[in-house]
Amino acid sequence: MSAQIKTLGEALPEEIKRCTELLSQYAAIGPAGNFGAAMIRLDIQNGVNALASGDVVAMLAAHEALKGCK
Question: pLDDT exceeding 90 applies to what percent of the chain?
């Protein structure tokens, strides 16, 4: 079984999607999830901005930040 290698241009949108879904879980918690939701929103926005700019360094940083969202 071989692992599929993804480009940053493929992996970053996947992480943005995953974190967008995670955001709804934080929002469902209510006030206790507000801080976490705000941090995830910021990471998502940074990822979207990095993709739009094409800045590879910003894309790498955004991808790493989004991977850290739990």
Answer: 91
